[in-house]
# Entry
Amino acid sequence: NRRQFIALGAAGVGTALVGHWLGQETISSQPLPSSSASAFGVYQSRDGLLELDIIAKENPVNLAGRQAYLLTYNGQVPAPRLEAQPGDKVRLHFTNNLSQPTNIHYHGLHIPVTGNADNVFLHIKPGEKLTYEFQIPPNHPAGTFWYHPHLHGLVAEQLFGGLAGLFIVRGQLDEIPEVKAAKEEFLVLQDFAVDNNGRLINSAHMSLMMGREGDIITANGQVNPSLSLPEQRLLRLRILNASPSRFYRLSLENHSFYQIATDGGALNEPIEVNELLLIPGQRAEVLIKGDRQPGQYRLLNLPYDRGGMGMMGGGMMGRNNRDEPIVLVTISYEDQGQSLSIPTQLASISALPEPQTVRSFELNHGMNPAVGMAFLINGEAYNHDRLDTQVQLDTVEDWEITNTGMMDHPFHVHNNAFQVISRNGQPESLLAWRDTVLVPRGETVRIRIPFRDFTGKTVYHCHVLDHEDLGMMGNLMINA
Ligand code: C2O
Ligand code: CU
# Structure
């Protein structure tokens, strides 16, 4: 059966997850074993094809020890992890069993933006089905990508309900011997707010300004799961911030991270960092050395202030104010090949040619009589019918994005990865492919985007998804 459902991960992953995909109720919504952070449903491509059924539906899920009614793909939070290789075809038979319209965005993949591919203008009504179909280009970089709903006006609500999953492209990075020898784990970070009956709380109107945040922080659907870091071996951690608004500033006690990849895949060489800021939508891959005393180390979310305080009446919205443990990392002996060597060369990213066009974007907010706060790009809230930016295929552009507002905005461009050129006029030294970049309040970030391979209409927006839903988005037309 081509629709294999495979349970991967640490030993002890329960039988609840093992088996073939037989129909819509097969995948269990049982609580995942709390001893492991790595229990995921996984679909992998076979013979060049990744084909599966995905059903969006509300489902009872064990959240922090009690039943919560979350929005799920195939009953799971986070959603099943999809894995394919460059050149593979993807055929995803989607059914919307939510009570709202929805669709799917393949965040970070460089695939067509029209038809039944990464088309965010599709509107799939409750009860309707749609087959997504596209090819991952043969030259697509390996990396950590993801999928989530993208129906304007409902994006934050649906993400906050739990609809998010990883989309992994396996390729060159995975073949680097040191990377291959590392133990691989995934962390999908999500936060939730549910009431005493386990129903999602979406009405916190104050939160719309800073974007909704929940008090239950989860990694792979669990509160404080543990992960084992093999002694004298490397752990490769692939992390996704799937929260609609929350920033994660991550640090592992007594350890540094060797970052090997950003949103768009491998860096040229690993960089050693003590903490990692992941803004909504972003991914990072790090190697961690298992060379400390056996014991437990906490992966912490450190305080971070993303602005907006003045307007919040002194509330703590938008600011983590304490170190929050997210995952317990236990160093333990594993009888597997031992190696702690960090690779030296990962990829060969080259700088882009000078741009043919330079554009400016201003991020700010203003008042809108209907909703109160409105979020604007160049003074305008999103209009479905307006083409904000028209670019020419096979050209390179610089976008200078200035944040004149009072809070930080993560800026995301669909489908076309970019490089950061400068921040506040200071050249950026790290060559990296990204699809989401932080534009802090009061600052200017210049990005360079090559428009390649695909024409058609797509979007760019703030990835604090309440800001996006409240207007901070523009239509981008890529012309032939
Ligand atoms: Cu992850 Cu347009 O979004
Ligand atoms: Cu924003």
User: Anything to note?
Assistant: The CA atoms of residues 140 and 186 lie 21 Å apart. The chain has three domains: 6-169, 177-332, 357-479. Residues 6-169 form a domain with the Immunoglobulin-like fold (CATH 2.60.40.420). Confidence is low (pLDDT under 50) at residues 1-38, 310-316.
